[in-house]
Amino acid sequence: MIVVIGSPSALARDGVVRAVGLSSLIAIAAAAHGRTVQLVGRLGDDGVADAVLQDLARQGVGHVAVLRDPAHPTPADTAADGSVADHPPTATGLELEPEDVELALRYLTDFAVVAVVGESGSVLAVVERAASWGTSALVVVGGVVSDAQDAAGHLGPVAGETSDAFARRVGDRLAALDAEAGPVRSVR
After folding, report:
1. Range of the domain at 144
2. Rounded to whole angstroms, how far apart are CA atoms 105 and 188?
3. Total structural domains in the chain?
4. For 24-40, what is each residue's pLDDT tens digit?
């Protein structure tokens, strides 16, 4: 299983709310290879979050470890009239707390690959400890690479690469690492 850690945000096009943000795009790209993918993140407890989770599920991404936070709305670009805007998002996902990630990784124990997407050093430290218990591959996307993290496991965009292309490249890499760990597992 691949676990992607990072909160999604929302974008509407033609009246359909989609999961966006680098963590979502990476998870979707990895799931497109038929791998089992779970997203760890935080969303508001609102209709936009419901639509984001439905979009992730339609694209093969599990979300059993996405926290719902009633104190904050789901991040989304909004137009002047208050609707979700129809343009690339500037919103970033809600911040994850290290304790939330630790709990999620205790629940999602069967991961061969874990990717941390743009999270703080304290979240990365929790993930490094969890990955060290087994033979899990740890990939850091953006953010700061700690001393314990091998630079080969840190991925960033190359000059001129779009966010979508970068997310596909990272998702492809995660799927390849997961394939090395074992056979395709169906998402149910």
Report:
1. 2-8+21-46+60-67+92-181
2. 19
3. 1
4. 999 999 999 999 999 99
